[in-house]
Amino acid sequence: MSIDNTTVAQNFSDRHVVIVGAGITGLAAAHQLLQQPHPPRVTIVEAADRIGGIIQASPFAGLDLVDESADAFLTRTPAAMKLCAAVGLDHHLTSPATNHAYIWNNNMHAIPTGTVLGVPGSHKAIWNTQLLTKSGKLRASVEPFLPRAIGRSTDSLGAAIRSRCGNQVLERLVDPLVGSIYATDTDNFSVQGMPQVAELLAQPTSLMRAARNSMQKRTSGGPVFATPITSMSAFTRAVRDRIVEDGGRVILSSPVRSIEPQGRSYVVHLETESLPADAVVLASPARHTAALVKQLSSETSTQLQQFEHASVIMIALTISRSQWPQHLTGSGYLVPKPVQTGVTAVSFGSNKWAHWKTASDEMILRVSLGRDGAPMHHLDDKALLEVALRDLRLHLGFDAAPTNMRFTRWIESFPQYRPGHEYRVETLDKQLHASAPGVVLAGASYRGIGIPACINDGQRAASRALSELHS
Ligand SMILES: Cc1cc2nc3c(=O)[nH]c(=O)nc-3n(C[C@H](O)[C@H](O)[C@H](O)COP(=O)(O)OP(=O)(O)OC[C@H]3O[C@@H](n4cnc5c(N)ncnc54)[C@H](O)[C@@H]3O)c2cc1C
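Above are the sequence and the flavin-adenine dinucleotide SMILES. Below is the predicted complex in structure-token form.
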């Protein structure tokens, strides 16, 4: 077990909050708690030997750190930008060098402009793209004339878009975009799990007009994505450093085994010690949290066990610039499910990030495989590489000859928000609160998978824990 902590003169209260999991959610919760004028003592307990959870970077192709998972966060939801500023990283951020990308549907097509996550905001957006056939375009064009109620009573994202805009808009535009963000199959994914689309469907107008209104409102012009120039792991490290400076304790390599109620407080059992806690933030994924809440609420535990997750593989490759088709200047492409044969998305890392420049100026690609309903992680590296190279040949039209390779398996990393997810989470929260007030669920399993959503959720959980301490 390794322990990071420094002792600082803080005006701590006599209360203690334990946070389970040092992913971005747990770190954001700890940071928030320690910003209080009279903060509780805070301990983060992490099962792995490093902080960051899914956020991870490692040396690649001679570069110090290249992300193995998330390479950026959305700026429109300000939580990540604000946390970066709070930990002194705001002057070390960069944004993608290119803001266009493609969808491969037997040919490379630019993602049509004038769409919101694939939902067309005008007839022009529909008719200007070759991604849709003529019948697909005709079907999409009638959306503004459909009765407003159509597609609005279901919580299946796929069903909602199919019934309003037709199968092709779903399968060739919305599903590739949303599916690649969440490694999901949108037919089995909650509308509420994708707030940008949920907001469009909630408008009392056609979906097309709602998309157009949303684009018109969004004229701030700043970059949509940002990342620390020294990788996303610099972000989690900077938050951890601030937590430790503020007197928080971080315990690594120590999976929490159980949580035991003790009067109005709790005992958090690790392998080698037990920590008394007045409140506990469970920032571990639902499938791990299920075991931890058994003694607190067996019903909550059973329901958490039923949460489903998808696994993905991220292969980083370098290829010689001489191989690269000059016309492909975008940040990468997505592959719609009906034409997927393994690869789901490819990021053209060297186009996207100006700072990913190798000594011999090779092209860095990040190739994603596997998603909900199409697992690939049972294949060994050799077989995965064969699939990746076969698909790259099909999509890009040449035999890629990789000079560096790195395989990262993200097993059960993407929570799947099934239809009804929001209601399920609300119920779980109430149930756990009734039997274990002061124990709070947080993280990607519940209220958003993207990094800003996780930060918001960590901070919300911190506020809930604080209010329990004071009740
Ligand atoms: C390949 C990939 C690419 C992604 N790309 C992006 C992107 O570009 N932008 C974006 O915004 N989002 C992206 N995401 C999503 C985002 O990175 C994650 O949703 C987010 O980082 C999850 O954070 P978290 O803290 O909730 O969970 P996690 O990062 O999973 O952290 C949970 C922590 O809990 C620990 N833990 C589990 N059980 C225990 C226990 N019993 N005791 C102690 N600790 C325990 C785990 O070890 C882990 O460290 C991506 C995800 C993946 C997999």
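The chain has three domains: 2-53+229-307+417-469, 57-74+94-99+309-416, 110-217.
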